[in-house]
Amino acid sequence: MTLPVTLPASWYTSDELLGIAKKKIFNKGWHFISPITKFTRDQEDGQRFCQLDLLENPFFIENSIEDVYQVNSVEAYYGKHKCLFTGHETDSQVEHVLSTLARASTHVTKSGLLFVCHESSPPDFNAFFGNQLDQFIEGKDFRSIAHRRKLSYECDYGFLTFIDGYQECLHCAYTHPGLAKAYCMDFYKVETYTNFCRHLADSNEKAGEDDTEAPDPGLFIYFFPTCALNFYAGGMGVFRCCPLTGSKCRMEFDYFFDGSDEDFEKYYEFARQVAIEDIELCEACQKNLESGIYQVGTLNPDKEKGVVYYQKLIREKIMV
Ligand SMILES: [Fe+2]
């Protein structure tokens, strides 16, 4: 039996690879962005627009949603809002500028998730996800959970280093003691679909004696290439790993929560602890990659199924 091998080590640090990835991966297909509740009017930071940029293809969205249940489409305008607006324009001046801008294609699912595509003729949304995504997201109501906090910072690791870590959980038991306590890592598994994966872990939380319902296993979905939705314990976390160079990323997080401020802070602290543990691990890993110690290795087709899956997609798209 031939074991799958990892991507070449040089790809993990290469600015040149990023240029190819932009053209062949990031500018193609549908990209998960966030539940639409991120774009409601009256943002905490007072911003009228939300700037997004997965990889050198900036676009922005107006934070103008008043009733999330009435919204089935979202406009995404190409450009940087800070270069276009001073904040002193009248509504009609803003409208005029917006009307002149090119727009990215967008798709809002019935459950309230926003996706963006940069292709001039976008592929059919459901077919792009192999007609397999609905079964996981359409039973949920992502509009019911309010956006509570966002966070963005740069990290010293490349996107491949980060996604390698997200797509397996062999490191979880020793890197994330809190997560390993809440979820039974022995039963961690990754199911692979078309352009996305579902991660599964058994909750260690036992249902009460009078409560015959099983604990909520949560919903963890990885969207190729660098975004994910993690929905559990009444909270929802989204990350977008946006490559900056071959060995640098901007990490963007959005946290959604249904509950009191106090409960949100507990959820947030838990989610942030896991994210901070991953930064340390990925930055240390990137240092080793930069030093040239690592060349290529084999992957465990069972325990590293998620890594095998996404690396195969990366390889296929880059080599075409
Ligand atoms: Fe991790």
User: What's the helix count?
Assistant: 10
Distance between the termini: 26 Å
Structural class: alpha+beta
CATH first level: Alpha Beta
Strand content: 25-35%
Let me know the number of strands.
Answer: 13
Mean pLDDT: 92
By CATH, the superfamily comes out as: Naphthalene 1,2-dioxygenase Alpha Subunit, Chain A, domain 1
- How large is the radius of gyration? 20 Å
CATH topology: Naphthalene 1,2-dioxygenase Alpha Subunit, Chain A, domain 1
Which small compounds were modeled alongside the protein? fe (ii) ion
What tags apply to this protein structure?
iron ion binding, globular, Choline monooxygenase, chloroplastic, 320 residues, Naphthalene 1,2-dioxygenase Alpha Subunit, Chain A, domain 1, alpha+beta
